[in-house]
Design goal:
Rossmann fold, 47% helix, 14 strands, 335 residues, alpha/beta, seven-stranded mixed sheet, 10 helices
């Protein structure tokens, strides 16, 4: 009898333990229901290190999400496409990309969509095989603002060069084109000496080399327009090393953590940016809402500064998250 009771108790405990384990397993599965992955242009650079923080924050804020970021150590579009191919094979729920070349992604995005995987982009307004593309601001206005400061600093006269990450990058080229158009209309005494634009592959070391080459080819250069994150600090270093402060002006894309020192020294005149972390968070939020069957509508608040009242036009979601920093206010931002 005692043995029978022991066996009965053991059986009951085992059944209860199995039930608890099954319940916990089911709960754990539901906690990470949607797998949302951000694929960035290039890993190992400050810009996308900051974007990862936004993706991680989103993962923390939403219990039914598994969100994370991946990227390659090269800006080669083919390498980025390979990462997306891997995610399609894995069968994730949503793929988010900051493209090196939007056109190169169209075939793999089409494949993803056919398999029920949703695709989204940031900085790729021309792409078609997506649910939405998220833009932090109006790209033309962003480029014009960079030129306003550069042109004013140059006194509206002299030669200048323009740098982009790659000529395949939608937003970089859009900023440069808008800036040049503004220059031709408002500063006709200025002359662009880089046609096509210089490419630095989003690599600060390569940008440093390209700026050196630009100055060697144009000893009378008076300005640099940087439409890629590493070009401003790279140019700042070259200008400082060569003692060209007050002789060569620089206005461009960067983060305070990357170029703030040069602003304070007066080597750079302005930097223009948005929060990569917030952009990553918002793009993930858009993916999440669509996965849940919700629509993104005009005036919607996506939960981050500059995206409290977004504009929606077709597949493009536009915020108002652009920031201009000078020596006077650069300490207002820590990223």
């Amino acid at each position: 009898m005692k043995l029978a009771k022991v066996l009965l108790i053991f059986t009951i405990v085992l059944i209860m333990a199995t039930a608890v384990f099954a319940a916990e397993k089911k709960k754990a599965k539901s906690v990470k229901e949607y797998e949302i992955v951000m694929v960035v242009k290039l890993e190992g650079v400050s810009w996308f290190d900051d974007m990862r923080k936004g993706i991680q924050k989103f993962d923390e804020d939403y219990a039914d999400v598994k969100a994370y970021q991946v990227g390659h150590n090269t800006g080669d579009p083919a390498a980025q496409v390979a990462l997306v191919e891997d995610l399609v094979a894995k069968g994730v729920d949503a793929i988010l990309v900051v493209p090196n070349d939007p056109k190169s992604l169209e075939p793999v995005f089409k494949k993803a969509n056919e398999r029920g995987i949703l695709t989204f982009t940031h900085e790729a307004p021309s792409i078609t095989n997506v649910s939405y593309d998220v833009e932090a601001f109006d790209n033309a206005a962003f480029g014009e603002n960079m030129m306003k400061i550069l042109g004013k600093t140059m006194g509206g006269k002299g030669k200048y060069g323009a740098i982009v990450g790659l000529l395949t990058m939608d937003t970089h080229v859009a900023w440069a084109n808008a800036a040049v158009a503004y220059q031709k209309k408002n500063f006709p005494g200025m002359q662009l000496v880089t046609e096509p634009y210089i490419e630095d592959d989003n690599n600060q070391q390569l940008a440093y080399q390209k700026v050196q080459e630009l100055l060697k080819a144009n000893p009378d250069l008076r300005g640099i327009l940087g439409c890629t994150g590493g070009s401003a600090p790279a140019a700042g270093l070259v200008i400082e090393e060569r003692g060209l402060q007050n002789k060569v002006a620089m206005s461009g894309l960067s983060l305070p953590s990357m170029a703030g020192t040069y602003l304070k020294k007066g080597v750079l005149q302005s930097i223009h940016f948005w929060s990569p972390a917030d952009a990553g968070y918002v793009t993930a939020r858009v993916a999440y809402e669509v996965l849940k069957g919700k629509k993104i509508t005009n005036g919607m608040n996506l939960g981050r500064p500059g995206y409290e009242k977004v504009k929606v036009s077709g597949k493009i979601i536009m915020g108002a998250a652009d920031i201009t920093a000078t020596a006077d206010n650069v300490d207002n931002w820590s990223f």
